[in-house]
Structure formats: structure tokens, C-alpha cells
Amino acid sequence: MDEQPSAGPAGEAAHPLDRRAELSEFLRSRRARLKPEDVGMPDFGRHRRVPGLRREELAQLAGVSVAYYTRLEQGNGRNVSAEVLDAIARALRLTDAEHNHLTHLAKPKQHKKKQAARPQQVRGALRQLLDTLDGVPAYITGRRSDVLVWNRMAAAVFGDWSELPPQERNWARMVFLRPEYRDLFVEWEQKAIDIVCLLRMDAGCHPDDPRLAALVGELSVKSEDFRRLWATHDVKEKSHGVKLLRHPLVGDLALQFESFRLVGDAELALVTYHAEPGSSSAEALRLLASWGTDATRAGTSSPQ
Q1: Residue 95 in contact with residue 103, Cβ under 8 Å?
Q2: Is it the case that residue 216 has pLDDT exceeding 90?
Q3: How far apart are CA 177 and CA 38, in angstroms?
Q4: Alpha-carbon distance 241 to 73, whole Å?
Q5: Which pTM does this prediction carry?
Q6: How many other CB atoms are there within 10 angstroms of residue 94's CB atom?
Q7: How many whole angstroms separate alpha carbon 49 and alpha carbon 28?
Q8: Cα–Cα dist 299/303, whole Å
Q9: What is the helix (H) or strand (E) element at residue 220, kind and residue range?
Q10: SS3 label, residue 260
Q11: pLDDT of the residue at 304
Q12: What count of other Cβ atoms lies within 10 Å of the Cβ of residue 19?
């Protein structure tokens, strides 16, 4: 099961994401979440027209001039040094993922546009590996949260993606636009947040990706939840955790997931799920595995 998503509906116009606007809004959003007391600065009770630190306070913490920081926050990252970005990241108390995102926005690499246009390929050996993971739901995702390849158990748990048009095999489209995935994920809001954070990271790495711009545009028009979460400018990547699912056949599942970036192509990630041995979730996975294609068909027969 391994068909790759296409570019989207024929004739659909897509415009690159505005990197300067992304940089400006990201810095403003990170500054707005900090208060003077958060960074050891006095707050004299003066009226603040906007939440968070003022530009001059952030510039003072980072050790740069107010004019310099203002230019950066207005989207002009030209010639900014890595040292200055590091200082600003420390002042804003950015996570590693946020620091990397800031660097991508301020100092984009010239080869990124070609990478974004490059077809996403999954080696045959990796496809074979998925098939050997008997009883373990597993799939490989690429840029823009596209689902590229998956095994039989992933189809039994998440639905048979081969029945979807290639362009719909995308976690963002499925989570925000398909009602059955709201029912499947017990903690749907957290799943939606995780997807938006990954798309933001992609936008930082590939601001000239027309397919990503088209995806963001489509979701912004069709989903109020997406618009709300996209406006937060949050970025993060989860490499492991627990997903709570409510499967239409076997009921509640608690599955631990692991996400592995592939050496040689960090844009691809292998994601696996497993249940605690001896648990009811492990027994449910065993049942789904024994039902085979019957479970896959039944699991995707709920109303769309």
C-alpha cells in the first residue's frame, strides 16, 4: 500500500508562503507570551498596550539595539548573524524546535526550493520493512504531513488510505476535514495541534513550496479550527508519546507511538504504534490482525 499524494486539484493556484511575514509574526507571537517577571525584569506597573515584552525590553535582553531588533521583527532578516539569532532565541526562551524555525525563517537556504519540488520517494526496502512489522501499525510520512506508505495494520487501525484519492492521504486534511478522525482520536485537539506544529516547521523550511501553500490555504478556508491553531505560530515535533483512540470495531485503544526520522532523508519519518504487553489494547490489536482485510473494510465503513 504505497501510492504517493499528488499536487492537488487540477488548476489549483498556489502561492508561496510569505517568509518575511512568517518571521515577523513568529517573533511577535513569541515576544507576546513573555512577561517582564518571566525574564527577571522589573515591571513597574505601567500600562501596556500589548501583551508581553516590549521590543526595547527584548532588545535589551538579547544585547542588540532596538532599531536592529525592530528591523528583524519587521521581517528583514538579511545579513543577521547566527550569533544574534542565538541571543534572541535565548531572550525569547525558545525551544530547540522554535530556535531552528527562527533560523530557517531568518536565514533560508537557497537549495530548499529545489528540495520542496523534489518528488517524495520511499525505498523499496522500507516498504518491505513495513510489511514485516506483523501486528505493528506503521507508516511513513513525508513533507506536508503526507502519508506515503503504510502496512496492513495501520490500515486496520486508521482506515484504508488506499480508498482515498492520493491528494487526500494527508494527515492535515484527514484530521481537519474528515469527521471520522474526530471520532477516532479521543484527544482530537492535541492531534490537531501536533499536525499544525509540523506544518509550521515545514513552512519555515520550505516557504516556496506551492503545495504546502495550497494546503494551508485550503484548510484555512474550510476549517475554523485550523485557522485558530495556525494563528498561534507554535512549532514542535513529537518523537514519542501515547495516542488514545476509539476504534469503531474494538473500542478504546491506548497505543504508544515512536517517530523516527530517516537517516539520509530527514523529511521522511517512520511512525510505529504498539500496545503495552498483556493490556486490553494489545488484545484488541491482536484481534484486528487476525481479522485482516475484514477489519480494514469494516473500520472504514463508518459514515464520511
Answers
A1: no
A2: yes
A3: 38
A4: 34
A5: 0.83
A6: 19
A7: 14
A8: 11
A9: helix 210-222
A10: strand
A11: 28
A12: 18
